[in-house]
C-alpha cells in the first residue's frame, strides 16, 4: 500500500517564549549548528522540554550547550541570557557541584537529588539555595549519550522555612525555662546572633514617648563592642524613627549605599557603632512602640526575606517570654505578700460559755469584726451578721466533731462587718465537754482569710483558663511522682491514651498502649535520659495502638525534677495528639513518591516509543509521523487519567479519546459498543496505545483508507470472581488485507507489550476481509 509523506512539522511551535528565542538564535556560531541540520533526537528532546510545565534545562553536544523552557527562565535571576552558552560558563560558581553530576549523566547514569544546597550568584550576590532535581541522559540516533535533561524544582523557600521554624522551636524551649527578664533577653540575643552569624544583637524596651530605647545587655561575636544604655531613636532621622513607631521593620543592606543612611552624619554614627548593615524590628503593643530588637553586621550584608522574618518572629517570642516571666514574678510576689500577711497577722482570741451564752472577746476580735476595741459585743447582733446559711455550717462542723468523739473543729465561713463589707473568716476551736458529753465552754481563734480566699479563687480561675487553653490546643498535662509511683494526669491525657476521662492512669496503662514494635526503643531512650544526670528536658514522639486497632501519634515535652543527689523525683509536661500531622506528612511523602514514579514511568514509555519507532521506521519522515502520533495518543490517555486524579479511567472515555482524530460528524464509520468499565492507569495507557496503532494502520492501509470501510470496537466483561475484559477490533469493507512479511512495532506493541501490561492475551488476525484484533485480560 503506497502513501505520501507529510511535511515536517515545526517542532518549536507552541514552545512559548523560549521556543521563539531558539528559533531566532544564531546557532551557526555554536557547536550545535543551524536548526535545519539538527538531528531528530535533538529536535524531539527540545520539543519535549519546551512543552513541559516543569522547569526543565537541557545541555547538548561536546560543550554542553544550554537549552531551557519558559518555566526555567526565572531560576536564572539576573544572569545574562544563557541560551546557546556552555553549561559551565552559565553556572561557573557552582560547577564543582553541577559538573560531576553532568559528567555522570553523560556516561549514561541518571541522578536524583533532594534539597541539595548550592551557592549561586544570580541576583548580584552569593545566595545559598536548595534544589530538588534529576539529571537524565538523552541518547542520539546512534544510541550514544548526546545530552543531559534536567528537571528541577527550587526548594529554597521550603528549606529556609523549615530551618526558621526549627530555630523558633529551640528558642521557645530555651526561653520556657527562664524566669528572669534579663535571662530571657540574654539567651534570645545569643541564640539569634549565633544562628545568623552577625556581629551584634540587642533587645531593649522603649519608654512611652517612643523616643528613648534602653538595652541592658548585648550579645556580640567579639569583633565589636557592646552598646548598652539608653539611646535616642530620633538620631536616626524622622524617616526611620517614624517607620519604627509605625511598626515597620528597618532593613539596611549597606549604609553607604542606602539613601536613608548615607548622609555624612549617619555614616559617622554607624562607624562609631561599628556596623554597616542592620535589621531593626519594633514591637507595637497596645497601640504604641514598646520595644525593639536590632541585628548589626560590621560589613555590608544582603539580608534575605527569611532572615528578616526570623528576626521579627524572635522579637515577638522575646516579648511573650518577658510578659510571662513578669507575670509569674508578680504572681509570686503577690502570693508571698499574702502568705506573709497571713502568717504575721494577729489572731483574734475568744471564749464562749454555754450556760450563760456569753462571749469574752479580745481587742483584736473587735477590730476584725469592725467594732471599737472597747465595745462589749452583743451575741444577738453578731448572729445576725452571718452570711445566709453559714451559721448553720459552723454549727454542723461542731456537731460532726462531737459525733466522732473529737473536741476540735475548724470551719470557714462568711461574715458581714459593721461597715457592711463581707469577709471570709477561719475559726479554729476546742470544746471543753461536761459529764453529759456536751460542751460547757468553747475556746478558739479567728483569722481573717479574705485575701487568701481571693487568691484561691484567682488561682481556680487561672487553672480554668489554663485548662481551656489546653483543651483548645488539644494538649494534655501530666505530673508523675517517681518516689511514690503515682501519676497525676489531666482527663485529656486519659482520653489520649484511650481511657475514660475519669480514669487515673498508671504506668502500666500507658505502656499497654505503646505500639509493640516501639516498646524496646521507647524504654531504652527513657533509661538513657533518666540515667544522664545532666538531662533535664525531654521530648518524645510515640505511636499508640488503640484497642480498636487505630494508630495514634502523640508528642510529649516536659522536664525531669531531680533532688540534690540527681535522683529523679518527678517528671511533668504536656502531651499533644499529632496524628493528623503525621497523616499529612505520610500523605505528602506518598504524593512525592507517586510523582517520581509517574515521571519515571512516563519517561520510560517515551524512551521505549522513541527507540522502537526509530529502529523500525523506513525514513525519518515516517519515524517523525509515527513518533508524534504515538506521543499524542499517550498524551490523550494521560489527559483522561489526570482528570480522574490517576485513580483509573473509564474504558468508554479511553476509546472515544483514542478514536476522536479519526471520526467525522457526517460519517458513521467507527462503531463503539460496550459497558463502561473502570481500568487501572497501566491498563488504560496500554489499551490507548494499542488503539492508536490499530487506527493508524486502518487509516494507512485498512478500513479507514477508503470511503466505505468501517471499524467496530466492541467489548464485554464477564461476571464472577475472575472478571475479564473481552475486547475486539474488527474492520470491514476495506481493501483486501495481505499478511505482512514482517511484524512492525505496532504489531509487536499489541501482541507482546499489550499482553504483558494487561497480564492477558492479545492477537491480530490479518483476515482478507479485514484485520481483527482480540484482547482478553483480567480486570482489577
From TrEMBL:
Q: Which UniProt keywords apply?
A: ATP-binding, Chromophore, Flavoprotein, FMN, Kinase, Nucleotide-binding, Phosphoprotein, Photoreceptor protein, Receptor, Repeat, Sensory transduction, Transferase, Virulence
EC number(s) on file: 2.7.13.3
Record's catalysed reaction(s): ATP + protein L-histidine = ADP + protein N-phospho-L-histidine
Q: Which domain of life is it from?
A: Bacteria
Q: Which residues form the PAS domain?
A: 334-405, 462-533
InterPro entries, alphabetically?
Answer: GAF, GAF-like_dom_sf, HATPase_C_sf, PAC, PAS, PAS-assoc_C, PAS-like_dom_sf, PAS_4
Q: Domain PAC: where?
A: 409-461, 538-590
Q: By what name is this protein known?
A: Blue-light-activated histidine kinase
Q: Name the source organism.
A: Microvirga splendida
* Source species taxonomy: Bacteria, Pseudomonadati, Pseudomonadota, Alphaproteobacteria, Hyphomicrobiales
Amino acid at each position: 500500500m503506497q502513501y505520501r509523506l507529510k511535511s515536517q512539522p515545526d517542532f518549536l511551535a507552541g514552545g512559548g517564549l523560549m521556543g521563539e528565542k531558539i528559533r531566532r538564535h544564531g546557532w551557526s556560531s555554536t557547536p550545535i549548528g543551524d536548526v535545519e541540520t539538527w538531528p531528530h533526537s535533538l529536535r524531539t528532546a527540545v520539543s519535549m522540554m519546551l512543552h513541559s510545565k516543569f522547569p526543565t534545562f537541557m545541555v547538548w553536544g561536546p560543550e554542553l550547550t544550554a537549552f531551557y523552557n519558559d518555566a526555567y527562565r526565572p531560576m536564572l535571576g539576573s544572569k545574562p541570557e544563557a541560551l546557546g552558552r556552555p553549561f559551565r560558563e552559565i553556572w561557573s560558581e557552582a560547577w564543582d557541584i553541577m559538573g560531576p553530576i553532568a559528567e555522570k549523566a553523560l556516561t549514561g547514569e541518571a541522578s536524583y537529588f533532594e534539597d541539595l544546597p548550592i551557592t549561586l550568584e544570580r541576583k548580584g550576590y552569593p545566595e545559598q539555595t536548595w534544589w530538588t532535581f534529576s539529571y537524565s541522559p538523552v541518547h542520539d540516533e546512534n544510541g550514544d549519550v548526546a545530552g543531559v535533561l534536567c528537571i528541577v524544582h527550587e526548594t529554597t523557600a521550603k528549606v529556609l522555612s523549615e530551618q526558621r521554624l526549627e530555630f523558633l522551636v529551640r528558642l521557645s524551649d530555651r526561653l520556657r525555662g527562664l524566669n528572669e527578664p534579663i535571662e530571657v533577653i540574654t539567651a534570645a540575643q545569643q541564640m539569634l546572633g549565633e544562628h545568623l552569624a552577625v556581629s551584634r544583637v540587642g533587645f531593649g524596651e522603649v519608654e512611652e514617648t517612643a523616643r528613648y530605647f534602653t538595652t541592658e545587655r548585648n550579645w556580640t561575636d567579639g569583633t565589636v563592642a557592646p552598646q548598652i544604655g539608653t539611646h535616642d531613636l530620633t538620631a536616626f532621622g524622622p524617616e526611620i524613627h517614624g517607620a519604627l513607631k509605625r511598626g515597620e521593620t528597618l532593613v539596611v543592606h549597606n549604609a553607604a549605599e542606602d539613601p536613608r543612611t548615607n548622609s555624612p552624619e549617619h555614616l559617622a554614627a554607624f562607624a562609631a557603632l561599628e556596623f554597616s548593615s542592620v535589621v531593626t524590628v519594633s514591637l507595637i503593643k497596645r497601640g504604641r512602640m514598646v520595644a525593639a530588637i536590632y541585628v548589626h553586621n560590621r560589613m555590608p550584608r544582603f539580608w534575605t526575606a527569611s532572615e528578616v522574618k526570623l528576626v521579627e518572629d524572635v522579637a515577638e517570642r522575646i516579648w511573650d517570654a518577658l510578659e510571662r516571666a513578669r507575670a509569674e514574678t508578680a504572681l509570686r510576689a503577690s502570693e508571698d505578700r499574702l502568705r506573709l500577711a497571713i502568717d504575721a497577722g494577729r489572731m483574734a482570741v475568744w471564749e464562749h460559755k454555754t450556760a450563760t451564752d456569753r462571749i469574752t472577746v479580745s481587742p483584736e476580735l473587735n477590730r476584725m469584726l469592725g467594732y471599737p476595741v472597747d465595745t462589749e459585743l452583743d451575741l444577738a447582733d453578731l448572729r445576725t451578721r452571718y452570711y445566709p446559711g453559714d451559721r448553720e455550717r459552723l454549727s454542723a462542723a461542731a456537731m460532726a466533731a462531737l459525733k466522732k468523739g473529737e473536741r476540735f473543729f475548724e470551719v470557714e465561713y462568711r461574715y458581714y462587718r459593721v461597715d457592711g463589707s463581707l469577709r471570709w473568716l477561719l475559726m479554729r476551736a476546742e470544746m471543753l465537754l461536761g459529764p453529759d458529753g456536751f460542751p460547757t465552754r468553747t475556746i478558739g481563734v479567728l483569722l481573717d482569710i479574705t485575701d487568701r480566699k481571693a487568691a484561691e479563687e484567682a488561682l481556680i480561675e487561672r487553672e480554668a483558663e489554663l485548662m481551656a487553653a489546653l483543651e483548645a490546643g488539644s494538649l494534655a498535662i501530666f505530673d508523675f511522682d517517681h518516689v511514690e509511683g503515682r501519676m497525676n494526669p489531666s482527663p485529656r491525657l486519659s482520653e489520649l491514651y484511650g481511657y475514660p476521662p475519669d480514669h487515673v492512669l498508671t504506668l502500666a496503662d500507658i505502656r499497654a498502649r505503646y505500639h509493640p514494635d516501639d516498646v524496646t526503643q521507647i524504654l531504652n531512650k527513657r533509661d538513657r535520659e533518666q540515667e544522664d544526670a545532666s538531662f533535664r528536658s525531654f521530648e518524645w514522639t510515640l505511636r499508640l495502638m488503640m484497642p480498636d486497632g487505630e494508630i495514634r501519634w502523640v508528642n510529649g515535652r516536659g522536664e525531669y525534677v531531680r533532688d540534690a543527689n540527681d535522683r529523679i523525683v518527678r517528671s511533668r509536661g504536656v502531651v499533644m495528639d499529632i496524628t493528623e500531622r503525621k497523616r499529612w506528612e505520610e500523605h505528602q511523602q506518598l504524593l512525592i513518591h507517586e510523582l517520581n514514579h509517574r515521571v519515571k514511568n512516563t519517561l520510560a514509555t517515551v524512551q521505549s516509543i522513541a527507540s522502537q519507532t526509530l529502529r523500525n521506521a523506513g525514513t525519518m519522515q515516517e519515524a517523525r509521523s509515527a513518533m508524534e502520533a504515538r506521543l499524542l495518543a499517550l498524551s490523550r490517555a494521560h489527559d483522561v487519567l489526570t482528570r480522574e486524579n490517576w485513580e483509573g479511567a473509564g474504558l468508554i472515555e479511553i476509546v472515544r479519546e483514542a478514536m476522536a482524530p479519526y471520526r467525522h460528524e457526517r460519517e458513521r464509520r467507527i462503531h463503539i459498543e460496550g459497558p463502561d468499565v473502570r481500568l487501572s492507569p497501566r491498563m488504560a495507557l496500554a489499551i490507548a496505545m494499542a488503539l492508536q496503532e490499530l487506527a493508524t494502520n486502518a487509516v494507512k492501509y485498512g478500513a479507514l483508507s477508503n470511503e466505505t470501510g468501517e471499524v467496530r470496537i466492541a467489548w464485554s466483561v464477564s461476571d464472577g470472581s475472575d472478571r475479564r475484559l473481552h475486547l475486539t477490533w474488527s474492520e470491514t469493507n476495506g481493501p483486501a488485507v495481505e499478511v505482512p512479511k514482517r511484524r512492525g512495532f505496532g504489531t509487536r506493541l499489541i501482541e507482546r507489550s499489550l499482553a504483558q501490561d494487561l497480564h492477558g492475551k492479545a492477537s491480530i488476525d490479518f483476515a482478507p476481509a479485514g484485520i481483527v484484533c482480540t484482547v482478553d485480560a483480567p480486570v482489577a
